[in-house]
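Holo prediction — zinc ion.
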Amino acid sequence: MNALWLDGLWDRGWYRFARRLDSPNFGVRPEGTLIDLVVIHSISLPPAASEADYGGGYVQQLFTNQLDWDAHPYFESIRDQKVSSHFLIERTGALWQFVSCQDRAWHAGQSSYTNKLGVTKNNCNDFSVGIELEGVPGEIFKDAQYESLSSLNAAISHICHGLDFVGHEHIAPGRKDDPGSGFDWSRLKRELG
Ligand SMILES: [Zn+2]
């Protein structure tokens, strides 16, 4: 029996304080899955050259299969990709949700995670929650993003116990580099208490 995610913070896997925008890109988690991982990502479409370039709404379009692949030359490199994440936190701290946490979002791809007991599991999408921070790998993130992330992590911890927090770069090394060196892991750990 998978977790029900139903309380004052959650409605069947949907966080009550996020803006909901349903993605068709998800599947069911394997029966009996214990969610023990949060995967932190970063994403920027197209990759922002300056702070003014963020917030164009293209990530939301990508996750809902609404992106016009011809709208920017960069989009050619991701043409026809069907992906999603449970959450996106924009530079402003605005929090979006695309897939219920009861379901499996398509954020990690080919991946492998070794837990604190030394047990290695592949296909991290099966047992993780994916959170995208709007940003370019290697650059720093905004206070407003850490604040939203902190509240969200506390809410997820309400349902899932013994969570570990990793970057996409840690579960798909050599293939992925997000969120990158600009993400403050010590701040995350501190805010998790
Ligand atoms: Zn990623």
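READOUT: Residues 143-159 form the longest helix (17 residues).
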